[in-house]
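Entry 14. Ran structure prediction on the chain below.
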Amino acid sequence: MAAQLERKAPGAGHGEQSAFPLLYVAGDVHLDGSAGAFAPFLDILLGRPAARLVILGDLFDYWVESPAVARRHDGVLERLRRLNGRGWRLDLVCGNRELVAGRRLEVASASTLHWPSLDLTLGGRRLRVVHGDRLCYDPGYRFYAAWMRSFFWRAFAACFPPLVHEGIARWLRAASQAGQERRRRESARRTRVFIDRRRVQGAARGADTLIAGHIHQAWRRRIGGVDMILVGDWPASRGHWVEGYADGRLVHIERDFGQG
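Output, structure tokens:
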């Protein structure tokens, strides 16, 4: 039977264990230029004691290493810098929307970039955070991601101005959305998620719990003997994230920021 990720409403306490979390994990926000629900979430964190925030990828619809893209997202990036200034530790595990992210994003977000994973210890429990795109059976995407990260593509792309890069990124994003909608219609009656069990086992080797995103679902199950958590995404005004406590508990939070 699948293990259930502990859930609680925002603000709900745990008696003597109601101390603030030491760890927050969120991802798949897909910012499109507006701050969305993620900005109010960061505002909540700004009012809490300093801890660690891990963004597990796809913070943006797409990221291009240009001043224009950084300015477009400055509402969220400025909040991240404020968190850093208040003693928070910020990490961003690059997802498939940050394939070309580099030093500009690291500076703009005051975050340390990681790829393909980030290892943490919480309450004696070894956690590994990944984006999740490498856990699915998708040979075409894996070839595309390898090409985008290659020296040859980066050298070729350097010959073109950021405006061209952004045009290509917009086109790829539109194609991706169309493909997702087509697959959603074709598999409307299916509940199966095409996670490769062997990739999960390989990604989790040496860890007690694997935390991932990418699939836009929130659950906790054992996949091939691996304790795996999917954090969930940020559709419209609703947010999903996981909070980690000093005793090793991992609690899923879901909140509709449209309700104030």
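Residues 162-186 form the longest helix (25 residues). Will compare against last week's run tomorrow.
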